[in-house]
Amino acid sequence: MKAVRYHEYGDAGVLRVENIDRPTPGVGQVLLRVTATSFNPVDAGIRSGQLRQVFPVSLPHTPGLDVAGTVAELGPRVTSMAPGAPVIGFLPITGGGAAAEFVSVPVDVLTAAPAALPLADAAALPLAGLTAWQALFQHADVATGRRILINGAGGAVGRLAVQLAKHAGATVVATAGPHSIHTIGADGVDELIDYTKNSVHDVLVEPVDVLLNLVPVRESSNADAQALLRLIRPGGVFVTAVPPVPESVGSRVRVVGMSTRCDVAALAELVRQVDTGVLRVDVAARLPLSEVASVHRQSDAGSLRGKVVFLPGD
Ligand SMILES: NC(=O)c1ccc[n+]([C@@H]2O[C@H](COP(=O)([O-])OP(=O)(O)OC[C@H]3O[C@@H](n4cnc5c(N)ncnc54)[C@H](OP(=O)(O)O)[C@@H]3O)[C@@H](O)[C@H]2O)c1
């Protein structure tokens, strides 16, 4: 089968499409025929070796933490899935990824795919959706009456977080750039700040209860993170998906440096929200595996905009 692999850490040039043996599902696993995987910024961090201490992978490694596909074969002792079922999942970070025609995955990371989306587009949901969900509802308590600032709302996580926070009844302030500001605006954001024109520190009308920080690490500094804390009311919470995690001076604000976990119940709830029309999943490009290296290159250069899914069948 075709699979993207790298045999050493390095720049995007280490990514190759290779022909390798199809995996055999082990105990508690299923073999999926991959309809799509997606690109997440962490894929580039793992490939470069920058995250090798946090997420040690075995080389050669296949990237792709999100999967959407159909069950091709059941491993021993798997009774909860039927062959042919369309499923999605957020795969274990240090295991083999889904940028391949087939992948063996633990059955307990999978949930039924949304019916309202093409299966390929559903690969855009698991990691980004779980990050938004866990940030808003597990690390913070976003609900009616709360005021939240989503800093970096234009990306995959931010767009989903805006919709989830609005649906939960919160007042939402968002920062976004020209590429995404119209989409974010259409989601009913209460205050929209174009970060290329204004600093959030200058134009935020009043402090927030919750600040979710999604600005890519190359754009952030310790000083930026500390300054963001001053936009939060005493007793509020700062959730960042991106380092650095600032010190909370005098415990005025609770600070959470989050790391997204697999949570099948939350993923099933996200699927339900897609199917009931609450949540829209935006996909900017659907590309073959031969484009994986090019997308990593754009991400490394800071020029990638919008969610990309890869289709191994193309
Ligand atoms: N800790 C975890 O477990 C975890 C999990 C998932 C993601 N993350 C991290 O969370 C971040 C967002 O992930 P993602 O998948 O949404 O990435 P993404 O789709 O690449 O989005 C990044 C967005 O950041 C926006 N941006 C860039 N510079 C900005 C600035 N100075 N101010 C405000 N916004 C800015 C851009 O939006 P515009 O189009 O508006 O310019 C861009 O689309 C990434 O750094 C990712 O690594 C962490």
Q: Assign the CATH architecture of the largest domain.
A: Alpha-Beta Complex
Number of helices: 8
| Ligands (ions, cofactors included) | NADP nicotinamide-adenine-dinucleotide phosphate
Structural class: alpha/beta
Count of individual domains: 2
CATH superfamily of the largest domain: Medium-chain alcohol dehydrogenases, catalytic domain
Q: Examine the coordinates and then state which fold CATH places here, giving the name of the CATH topology of the largest domain.
A: Quinone Oxidoreductase, Chain A, domain 1
Considering the chains and any ligands shown, give keywords for the structure.
314 residues; 2 domains; seven-stranded mixed sheet; 8 helices; alpha/beta; Quinone Oxidoreductase, Chain A, domain 1; globular
List the helices and strands and how they pair.
Layout: E1 2-5, E2 16-19, E3 29-38, H1 41-48, E4 66-74, E5 86-90, E6 102-106, E7 110-112, H2 126-139, E8 147-151, H3 156-167, E9 171-176, H4 181-186, E10 191-194, H5 200-203, E11 208-213, H6 222-229, E12 232-240, E13 254-257, H7 264-275, E14 285-287, H8 292-301, E15 308-310
Helix pairs in contact: 2-3
The structure holds NADP nicotinamide-adenine-dinucleotide phosphate.
